[in-house]
Amino acid sequence: MSERARFVVSRSAQALLVIALSYTLVFFTLFVLPGNPIENKLTNPHNPLPDEAAGPLLEYYNLDKGPVEQFLISVSRLLHGDLGYSLINGKPVADLVAQGISNTAPLAALALLFTAIISLGVALLAVFGPKSLRGFARLLPLVFLSTPSFLVGFLLLLVFSFQLGWISSIRDEGFVSLILPALTLAIGVNAPITQVLITGLDRASGEPFVTVLRSRGASEGQIVGGHLLKNGSIPAITLLALTVGDLVASTVVVETVFSRTGIGFITQQAVRDQDTPVILAVVVLVSATFVIINLAADLVYPLLDPRISYTTRRGRARASKRIRTEAEAFA
Question: Hey, what domains does the chain have and what are their CATH numbers?
Fold first, then answer.
């Protein structure tokens, strides 16, 4: 087995372990607490679910069995794609989550793209742009960081929907309707990535190899695009992968502002209504997304910097330590 294959298998096993531990912790926290929270919710007279639907759900969740047996039954169902049923409306949780993913996945993907574009553009302007604009560009991450997402969303709606009328605030116009919420998400999470990218490019531009490349007649575009971005972007890529969690958290606010029924909206409703099966499914979904994207980031490192091999833990640890240090300094 090649080094890369061994690394992928090892990191995949670690990712599965993280997801399993997350599921186990949340399951025992939500389902096996004293007082049977599921039974309390289903038998609550204020619960909109009718009695004829609550009875089968009580039987489905095996509340008469021990915690370990409940957990094993739940895991077995999970492996068969059965995520349970909502305690509020009795609908399959898998259907609710699938509906949320179909609305949130395109939004999150576009927000990640906008985040990368904004961070790269501001960082390049701050390091290599005209000197008169460099100071302004270095202030932008602080402005982005200090501006609440809901305020950004309201301002974008005010300008582009209510004043200019370019994008409807009510109708779903497909891809066009994703632009404002995705831009809101990107502005809310890109500040640390931008600052770390600026720091990485500053450090890389001062390395001796830059002088050597210039002496050999390489153009500034070749130096920046072919060498500096590769050397200076590794910490930013790590932080971009970690940003997925922030994006999911931010969707709760953004989807409320823009009236979108995605994962954020479903999570808000589930927490408000104490719909524990839905909460558990969302936790598993977020955990799986987070570890998969971080695995992809680990696979990209050696492509950007050949000094970091798939078997060199020190190189990956050094990149992780650098990103933590720079992020803490920025915060």
Answer: 3-79 (no CATH), 93-330 (1.10.3720.10)
